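To illustrate the input format used throughout this study, we show a single complete record. The first block contains the structure-token representation of the backbone; no residue identities are included at this stage. The design step must infer an amino acid for every position from geometry alone.
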């Protein structure tokens, strides 16, 4: 075999003997300075300790790689910074330190994403340690990291808060969160929340309503009402009904003799003179039947002069001179219009006063002629109290 050149340290032409270990647990590292280029490597053991044994690993690169690194710079690695002197320096720890708790006076919370000339403070919402930075996952956060302290882990988002990007945001009035949201949810229509940092919304009381993202419920406007809870709008009172004041969950019917037309009704109007309204859902008044208004004025004048009417006697007789079977419908209507309406008008004029006084008598007498003429008339009298 052709004799190979021997390695000489620093070109001193002095042969270099590499130190080795004397047990199986000790590792000895030998750095070739300057580096050598070779195709083959031959080892020449000089001495042995106890028994013959040899184990070694060669670490290096190809000549092409060596030439590249001799003339090219590479990216500074994560958790390091490079000032331009061709050397990587550690962030948040000592260079080449074996004790990870020793920072050599540097901030323990600084970090580097690499390709940096200086270390940077820990970003908001991140955990920094040993020069590395790790973001908090969704729905977690970190309170703060200063120059001397950073938590070991991110905290779970609490009720009434939304967490995103490792930061916590308190829900404002009109919104809420169960702790598993990136953004606070707005209160749904018909609900409200007037405090910050809450995990839910409250329903509106009857007679109130709210739209979306509300911190309060509003009273229904006059003439409108809201039934139940979670109401996002109020309804108009139906025709013939009205609503007054606040906390209205229903509308009231207009009293007899009054009416309500249209929307936004907080009261009913009295019927004009000569008109009347009876029952519910009244949006207009009807004209009083013929003679009814005059009869009411007569009764009022009588009561103002002589006192209240205690007994009313009505004669509702039907007087017909010929056979009833031969009467036409128009003739029957005429008989009823003259006799029966008079009875109803009289009763209507006095009944309210009797009901208020809780006393009074009404006597209705009804007679009907026979088949023809006076000879065969039949009488029937009814007394109503």
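Output of the design step:
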């Amino acid at each position: 075999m052709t004799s190979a050149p021997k390695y000489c340290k620093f070109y001193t032409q002095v042969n270099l003997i590499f130190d080795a270990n004397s047990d199986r647990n000790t590792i000895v590292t030998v750095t070739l300075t300057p580096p050598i280029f070779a195709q083959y490597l031959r080892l020449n053991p000089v001495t042995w300790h106890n028994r013959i044994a040899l184990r070694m690993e060669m670490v290096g690169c190809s000549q092409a790689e060596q030439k590249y690194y001799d003339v090219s710079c590479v990216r500074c690695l994560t958790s390091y910074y490079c000032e331009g002197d061709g050397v990587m320096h550690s962030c948040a720890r000592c260079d080449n330190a074996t004790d990870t708790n020793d920072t050599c006076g540097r901030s323990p919370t600084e970090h580097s994403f690499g390709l940096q000339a200086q270390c940077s403070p820990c970003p908001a919402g991140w955990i920094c340690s040993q020069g590395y930075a790790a973001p908090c996952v969704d729905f977690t956060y970190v309170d703060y990291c200063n120059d001397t302290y950073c938590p070991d882990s991110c905290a779970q988002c609490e009720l009434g808060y939304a967490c995103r990007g490792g930061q916590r945001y308190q829900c404002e009035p009109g919104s809420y969160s169960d702790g598993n949201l990136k953004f606070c949810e707005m209160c749904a229509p018909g609900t409200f929340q007037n405090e910050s940092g809450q995990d839910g919304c409250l329903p509106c009381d009857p007679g109130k309503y709210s739209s979306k993202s509300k911190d309060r419920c509003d009273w229904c406007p006059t003439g409108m009402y809201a039934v139940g809870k979670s109401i996002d709008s109020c309804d108009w009172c139906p025709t013939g009904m009205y609503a007054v004041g606040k906390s209205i969950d229903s509308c009231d019917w207009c009293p007899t003799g009054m009416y309500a037309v249209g929307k936004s009704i907080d009261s009913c109007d009295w019927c004009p003179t000569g008109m009347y309204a009876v029952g519910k859902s009244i949006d207009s008044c009807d004209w009083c039947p013929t003679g009814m208004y005059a009869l009411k004025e007569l009764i009022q004048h009588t009561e103002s002069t002589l006192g209240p009417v205690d007994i009313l006697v009505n004669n509702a007789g039907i007087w017909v001179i010929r056979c009833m079977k031969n009467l036409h419908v128009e003739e029957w209507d005429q008989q009823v219009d003259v006799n029966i309406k008079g009875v109803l008008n009289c009763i209507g004029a006095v009944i309210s006063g009797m009901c208020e006084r809780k006393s009074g008598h009404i006597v209705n007498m009804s007679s009907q002629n026979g088949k023809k003429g006076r000879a065969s008339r039949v009488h029937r009298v009814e007394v109503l109290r």
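Structural context for interpreting the output: Residues 1-120 form one domain. The longest strand covers residues 361-368.
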